[in-house]
Design brief:
The protein is of the alpha/beta class. It has helices spanning 23-34, 46-58, 73-87, 110-138, 150-153, 159-179, 197-203, 207-215, 225-236, 238-241, 265-284; strands spanning 14-18, 38-43, 63-67, 92-95, 141-146, 184-191, 248-251. The structure holds coenzyme A.
Length: 285
């Protein structure tokens, strides 16, 4: 549940959120609305987008929906131009639309590879380019790309998604350097396992998968879309993150740090404690 933010940090501003009909995209759109901003949510299926827009309106935002496939560069350009035509500006773009499934690399068809690269990497570029064409002349803008930590540490079964997210990371850093002097910031957020229907079905479909994922998170829990959205709000807010560009904020309970594979540290600690107790009793005698 997202409540109005006392910061009102996005008052008078407009954000476009791709994949805003569900999960993390919806939560970010609603958090922007809660901060006083107006939101446009873009995706393929209008029904969930309409629901997000309705919830944003309940938070006091002006909200709109654009049905568009991010794989279509002309449709994306028309959609972004439409946002600016309607609202007079675009202050934030959140590239959240994604497609994913787990598949052994040797079994992945060229079409499966292309589908994910097209949505995730190409779609992000098309949206970014279209938004930047308005943000750069205005001298301001914040672009936030949703990636995953396997972009840098890899993960079996995700070669298509990891390649796409790794490409977005390189794109983010390049554009941050290219546009840094022109008022447009470009950052990434890297959520860990987040309780959404889409992620669960694609990435931890069974109870055993879920338990294994949970065991990989030092924080010992999954996160929520709302928690991720709070970090996204920070990066989108010029007042708090105006000097942050080209960076990645991991919101993953430490999952990317990896899991210890050596001796159980609780055992190691207790044996050290035992020997230090023995040492101190020897020195007392
Ligand atoms: N394993 C292996 N290949 C798969 C697959 C899976 N689980 N799911 C889809 N593919 C392949 C298809 O077989 C097809 O290749 P083919 O023509 O060689 O058979 C190719 O990917 C495209 O699939 P299709 O369903 O036609 O594409 P689409 O554009 O409708 O769907 C996807 C895009 C594939 C990314 C689909 O998973 C999707 O729409 N996902 C959206 C939701 C989502 O992924 N959310 C996850 C958030 S973490």
């Amino acid at each position: 549940m997202i409540e109005p933010s006392p910061l009102a940090e996005f008052a008078g501003r407009v954000a476009l959120v791709t994949g805003g009909g569900s999960g993390i995209g919806r939560a970010i759109a609603l958090r922007y609305a809660a901060g006083g901003g107006d939101v446009v949510v873009l995706g393929r299926r209008p029904e969930p987008l309409e629901e997000t827009a309705h919830l944003a309106e309940e938070l006091g935002a002006r909200a709109a929906v654009v049905s568009c496939d991010v794989r279509d560069p002309d449709a994306v350009t028309a959609a972004v131009d439409g946002v600016v035509g309607e609202h007079g500006r675009i202050d934030a773009l959140v590239n959240n639309a994604a497609g994913n499934f787990v598949c052994p690399a040797e079994d992945l068809s060229p079409n499966g590879w292309r589908a994910v690269l097209d949505i995730v990497l190409n779609g992000t570029f098309y949206c970014t380019r279209a938004a930047a064409r308005h943000m750069l002349p205005a001298g301001r803008g914040a672009i936030l790309n949703v990636i995953a930590s396997y972009a840098w540490h890899g993960h079996p079964g995700t070669v298509h998604s990891a390649a796409a997210k790794g490409g977005i990371l390189a794109m983010t850093r390049t554009l941050a350097a290219e546009w840094g002097g022109r008022g447009v910031r470009v950052n990434c957020i890297s959520p860990g396992p987040t309780e959404t229907e889409g992620a669960g079905a694609a990435l931890w479909p069974t109870d055993a998968d879920r338990a294994r994922v949970l065991g990989s998170v030092p924080a010992g829990r999954f996160t929520t879309p709302e928690e991720v959205a709070e970090s996204a709000a920070f990066l989108l807010d010029d007042a708090r993150a105006g000097y942050v560009t080209g960076d990645v904020l991991s919101v993953d309970g430490g999952q990317w740090l990896g899991k210890a594979v050596y001796a159980d540290s609780s055992r190691a600690d207790s044996s050290r404690a035992d020997s230090s107790r023995a040492d101190s009793s020897r020195s007392r005698s």
